Automatic annotation (TrEMBL), chain A:
<dbReference type="InterPro" id="IPR015879">
    <property type="entry name" value="Ring_hydroxy_dOase_asu_C_dom"/>
</dbReference>
<comment type="similarity">
    <text>Belongs to the bacterial ring-hydroxylating dioxygenase alpha subunit family.</text>
</comment>
<dbReference type="GO" id="GO:0051537">
    <property type="term" value="F:2 iron, 2 sulfur cluster binding"/>
</dbReference>
<dbReference type="GO" id="GO:0005506">
    <property type="term" value="F:iron ion binding"/>
</dbReference>
<dbReference type="InterPro" id="IPR017941">
    <property type="entry name" value="Rieske_2Fe-2S"/>
</dbReference>
<dbReference type="InterPro" id="IPR015881">
    <property type="entry name" value="ARHD_Rieske_2Fe_2S"/>
</dbReference>
<dbReference type="InterPro" id="IPR001663">
    <property type="entry name" value="Rng_hydr_dOase-A"/>
</dbReference>
<dbReference type="InterPro" id="IPR036922">
    <property type="entry name" value="Rieske_2Fe-2S_sf"/>
</dbReference>
<keyword id="KW-0408">Iron</keyword>
TrEMBL record, chain B:
<dbReference type="Pfam" id="PF00866">
    <property type="entry name" value="Ring_hydroxyl_B"/>
</dbReference>
<dbReference type="InterPro" id="IPR032710">
    <property type="entry name" value="NTF2-like_dom_sf"/>
</dbReference>
<keyword id="KW-0223">Dioxygenase</keyword>
<dbReference type="GO" id="GO:0051213">
    <property type="term" value="F:dioxygenase activity"/>
</dbReference>
<dbReference type="GO" id="GO:0019380">
    <property type="term" value="P:3-phenylpropionate catabolic process"/>
</dbReference>
<comment type="similarity">
    <text>Belongs to the bacterial ring-hydroxylating dioxygenase beta subunit family.</text>
</comment>
<protein>
    <submittedName>
        <fullName>p-cumate dioxygenase</fullName>
    </submittedName>
</protein>
<dbReference type="InterPro" id="IPR000391">
    <property type="entry name" value="Rng_hydr_dOase-bsu"/>
</dbReference>
<keyword id="KW-0560">Oxidoreductase</keyword>
């Protein structure tokens, strides 16, 4: 196949081959080289706080059971019976010491160990001495400040090494709370009829902010009589390993801690105190960065952490080149008062999620891209050049360096893969 | 002053009128059906009794937010609904509570079909209304839409008013 990208620094032109959004061969390569080898977000540690707590998760095409085992360890078990393969746990979430496959009633402790099956006399002694009849756990499960990731490649580098420069930005999100962040209930499960990489691009794309989300900013301007002009200004940064971030100022309120006129005077005082507290902990400069700057982070390949009018984490997987399944989380400081929590959630819902005033328009933009890629035969290349003329170290948040960083890394993986055989899943 | 007695049929007609207004995209008229403190909420799927400080809802509109929602969707720049999708709302199994109560509770099942770009999505579930007399008219004080789905797949969004 022809090239995936054309990266012409001299001409300040960066092009992406639209076939990457429609080609089944490409998706097979992505499964083999990206989803089987990169660190993938499975969930937040606070989703399963107590021993026995579990949640079913679909990660990288697998059915997993994210479980807080009785021994205190957090595990990701493949949710399949070692006997004949049936899905063992059928509830989406709950608390249990034991998981039992209903098909032949094999039972497992919540660390995966086989503890019972009917008709034992039909099996040899030492049948499970090697543990092959236990529910299998994903070998690599690592935690960075509450964000839990799995990797299906046993030889992968550590999560911390993988995250690299992105850690600084995750820290800025988590440091807004002295007691850590927690995931709220009601994880939003939705879809987009578009290729998954379009959402990775869209999540760090500030260039589309005004044209796509004008109706949201109209509302912001109506709420704040002093807001004459919508400023969306900041930097775009390549974090390496395909990760990137935009860090910028924006006119919306931030629960920690940028006041906006939709909130009352009591909130204003609360937020000044929050900022003082942050300044005590981290100094003025970092406190200002935490409280007043927004961050949209993409962790390659498919985790987005947006610290904007609320904090959301979203992850997304392709089930075909033109369709993705999305999980959207809300994260908030532990111990936040009900009043602030409600304001945070309402701020979230004004913009974010499938019922918000902005996310559905993103969804539409992505679907229109996907629909029009049926012109790929004649119109082959996407343009991702904005800001190259400034030099990659000087990118604005409204430039496209973030997407170029994703694509350069993606290209290094997929172009190499195209030269070798991979098994189709 | 005489106050007309409210009959079950008045409530049923009121709901059907709401559905018709929404299908005809008269969204400002829809917002006007609510009391000044009216709310419109869609709790998370599978958690119909979720608490908004503990769980993330899909929609949690107070009166001003639902007005903004209606006005936004009528703008050309509400891209997801421009051009407007075509919708058919059906309300079934309508159960009307005590008509003499200050707040009349009504439950119904609903099926809302949306079509756009030759793709039909169907939203199904239950709506719980709290309806009050507001001067000479009926008005919605609370509309709670409980989706009976496993996820928003393949719908992807609730860009419509349900």
């Amino acid at each position: 196949m022809e090239r995936i990208i054309q990266d012409n620094v001299e001409k300040s032109e960066f092009l992406v081959n639209r076939r990457v959004f429609t080609d089944k061969e490409i998706l097979a390569r992505e499964r083999a080289e990206i989803f089987n080898k990169c660190w993938l977000f499975i969930g937040h540690v606070t989703e399963i706080p107590e021993a026995g707590d579990y949640k079913r998760k679909k990660v990288g095409g697998r059915n997993l059971l994210f479980v807080h085992s009785q021994d205190g360890e957090i595990r990701a078990l493949f949710n399949t019976c070692p006997h004949r393969g049936a899905l063992v746990c059928r509830e989406d979430s709950g608390n249990s010491r034991v998981f039992r496959c209903f098909y032949h009633a094999w039972s497992f402790k919540n660390d995966g160990e086989l503890v019972g099956m009917p008709g034992k006399d039909g099996f040899p002694e030492g049948f499970n001495d090697e543990g092959t009849k236990n529910m299998k756990a994903v070998n690599r499960l690592e935690n960075y400040r509450g964000f839990m990731f799995v990797n299906f490649d046993e030889n992968a580098i550590s999560l911390e090494e993988y995250l690299g420069n992105a850690k600084e930005y995750i820290d800025l999100v988590v440091d807004q709370s002295e007691y850590g962040m927690e995931a709220l209930g009601g994880v939003q499960q939705y879809s987009v009829r578009a290729n998954w990489k379009l959402l990775a691009e869209n999540s760090v794309d500030l260039y589309h902010g005004m044209p796509t989300h004008k109706t949201y900013f109209d509302i912001k301007q109506a709420q704040d009589p002093n807001l004459k002009r919508v400023r969306l200004e900041g930097k775009g940064i390549n974090l390496g390993n395909g990760h990137s971030v935009i860090e910028y100022v924006a006119p919306w309120g931030r629960p920690v801690a940028q006041w906006t006129p939709i909130w009352d005077e009591e909130f204003k005082n609360d937020m000044e105190k929050m900022k003082e507290k942050l300044a005590e902990r981290f100094g003025e400069e970092r406190a200002n960065r935490i409280a007043n700057y927004n961050r949209n982070i993409v962790i390659f390949p498919n985790l987005v952490i947006n610290d904007i009018m609320a904090v959301t984490a979203r992850t997304f997987y392709p089930s075909s080149p033109g369709y993705m399944e999305v999980q959207g989380y809300s994260l908030a400081p532990k111990g936040e008062s009900d009043k602030h929590r409600l304001a945070r959630n309402n701020n979230f819902l004004e913009f974010l999620g499938p019922g918000g005033f902005a996310t559905p328009d993103d969804n539409e933009a992505l679907e229109l891209c996907q629909e029009a890629y049926n012109n790929n035969g004649e119109m082959q290349w996407n343009d991702i050049s904005k800001g190259m003329v400034r030099g990659e170290g000087n990118a604005l948040a409204t430039d496209e360096l973030q997407m170029r960083s994703f694509w350069r890394h993606y290209n290094s993986i997929i172009a190499a893969s195209l030269n070798k055989e991979v098994a189709h899943q | 002053m005489t106050v007309k007695t409210i009959e079950r049929q008045d409530i049923v007609d009121f709901l059907y009128t709401e559905a018709k207004i929404l299908d005809e995209w008269k969204l400002n008229d829809w917002a006007a059906l609510f009391t000044d403190d009216g709310t419109y909420i869609v709790p998370p799927i599978g958690e119909p009794e979720a608490i908004p400080t503990k769980s993330l809802f899909y929609i949690h509109d107070n009166r001003s937010r639902l007005q903004e929602r209606a006005e936004r969707l009528l703008k050309k720049e509400a891209h997801v609904e421009y051009p407007h999708s075509t919708t058919t709302r059906n309300y079934h199994n309508i159960l009307v509570g005590d008509l003499n109560s200050d707040v009349i509770t009504v439950e119904c099942n609903f099926t809302t079909h949306r079509t756009k770009r030759e793709v039909v999505d169907t939203f199904i579930g239950k709506i719980k209304y709290e309806i009050v007399r507001d001067n000479d008219r009926l008005a919605i004080q609370r509309k709670k839409v409980v989706l009976n789905l496993d996820s928003l797949r393949p719908h992807g969004k609730i860009s419509l008013i349900l």
